[in-house]
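Troubleshooting log. The previous structure file for this entry was overwritten by mistake, so regenerating from the original sequence record. Sequence copied from the archived sheet and checked twice against the printout by T.R.
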Amino acid sequence: MQMESAERPRSDKRRFGAFQGVFTPTLLTILGVIMYLREGWVVGELGLAGAWLVIAGGSLITVCTALSLASIATNVQLDEGGPYAIIRRSLGLELGGSVGIPQYLSQALAVAMYIFGLRAGWLWIFPHHPPLVVDFAALGVIFAVAFISADLAFRVQYFVMAIIGASLVSAFAALFGDAPWQPVEWWRHDAGAASPRFWEVFAVFFPATTGIMAGANMSGELKNPRRSIPLGTLSAVALGTLIYVALAYWFARVATPEQLRSDHRVMIDRSAFSPVVLAGLLGATFSSALSSLVGAPRILHALAKSEALPRAGWLAREEGEPRRAMLVTAGIVGLAILLRDLNAIAPLITLFFLITYATINLVVLLEQRLAVVSFRPKLRLPVIVPLVGTVGCIFTMFVINAAFSLVAVAMVVVGYGLMTRRKIVAQHDDVRSGLFLMLAEWAARRATRLPHGRMKAWKANLLVPVVDVREVLGMFSLIVDLTKPYGAITLVGVKTAETPSDFESELERLADDFTSEGVHCTATALEAKHVDRALVHAMQTLRSAFLRPNLLFLTPLSARLSPEELEVPLRQAGENAMGVVVAALHPQAALGRKKRINIWMRRQAPDWSLEAGLRRSNINLLVLLPYLLHERWHAKLRLCCAVEPGEEEQARAYLSQLIEASRLPDDTELSIQASSLEDALDATPGADLNVLGLPPDREREFVERMLRLTRSACLFLRDSGEEDALA
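Regenerated output below.
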């Protein structure tokens, strides 16, 4: 997934941590009106074991989705829009908009649903108050809090959380009172897991397990979304599930099944102190409405900024709190309140949430299947997790309401078609190019033309010149490790007057050996008087090939070329959008034990900012290729840098920022020497492989000098401009 400078300086908007910005709104949305008014009914309808099964089923889908969301959050720096931003960056602006617009509307309509629940609790206390006045008074208070700032909204939610906590204490305290415990009905005989009734109850209860996007919607204003979203979401889901499980047992003990089925006020009436539970009900509906009214405008603002909404530039231009979007959202909520009854479209609201959840799980499935180097989350999931989340969401949609599910899917499809016709230019890469490439590889391996993947789907596709097959055999394992499993190798044999007669057959056998190792490899031979010109012709010819090489891999054959001859293919590589890899093995140790890799970063003075460094420096391949080797070898990485005295702290901060932004392993070491490069090479602990940038001129002299100084295998790299270490 495309990542925009993961750790660039953050704006002042980013001010919320995991607890305030994610955990609190997520937990309060989970612990909503269903907990107070419907969970006892679920226990009465199905029995305690049946209720636990419903909770487990709903929580399984939610946990899988939360894990997928957490995995994505550790791979990409999310801006505002939460789930919409995830889908847009992964599957494209068109699908992101077609899902994001219904997601926004369902979030806005959910505010009206929560207000109706709040009104029901209020009228229990003040039955003579006009319902419409209560609804708009509640909207006014909620809107005022949200409009002032999200910070105030979260502070109010602390108070609500305290009330909900007190209501739970009051409920559980009733178990220790004088009232007798009721015998537990484990299963209701006519409501087994295979019965239609079971799934009807499941459909009623399932919305209680949603709400995991309440924190993700604040992604643009979190101090560290990569940490806060996984930590806050997963902890809120875990605690919420535990509370629901414990409350199911409480309901089974304090009332008979008949009472649970007929009386929705059991939790209020059977608690130790009823007023505090009623206050918890009011607080839960209030906080859920507040979270939705805080989150929905941010989705709308993100939709407007990415031009997914036509003629909405006036919404996009607003900085800070999205108050214009909040006014629009409040207007939609007000119109929904005037309808007086949202029961007719309530299932559609839940279904749009489920479509969003299913799409997030699908994003992780696709990213894992594509195996692009840009997908390297800190939280890796077994494929079964997003698979269960995807299938579970789709299954639940049709369990809740098959007809509405078809309507919801149709609306997304129509929205996708309309978005595609608008031909909006996306601001970010997505994985679709990689997906199309994977399908094309499967269906038409011999196709000659296909738009190649961009930075998002970058893989190591090597162009390997072959003058002597034995030279490539010495690099065989290194080439395999750079390209397996989804890269490709193109062998270009160069035949001269001295070439043996069996050269082409040996070249074919070499290609077969790479293929047998699981790497797609093709081979061709060119006749030429000059090796350097043959390499230039090969690069020019293969630029439009099906699996276009993006790296020129030079083996020791470079020793056969004079500095002038070597300069020609090196210059032409850049003109043909190809990076350069010059590989040289140690004459005795070869690649050694493949346990240590030293990566030498160029001094960045005077500007040590990460964004400027990536733009002007030869750094991207220095991150991507060692990462690929780290994955294959399980080797330890070390970032090294030679600096001037007094620059050590700047260099350390820069390299630490690079590790975080490019998602290099957390145990990557740093070695910073205030000395010349030669002295730094001598002072830095040795490695099995040293990786250095290739200078813009006098390349051969630099390569030979570094080989003498490092006394190890070396890779010398030059970017093409099509790589992005932060992608």
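The two ends are 6 Å apart (CA to CA). Archived copy saved in two places this time.
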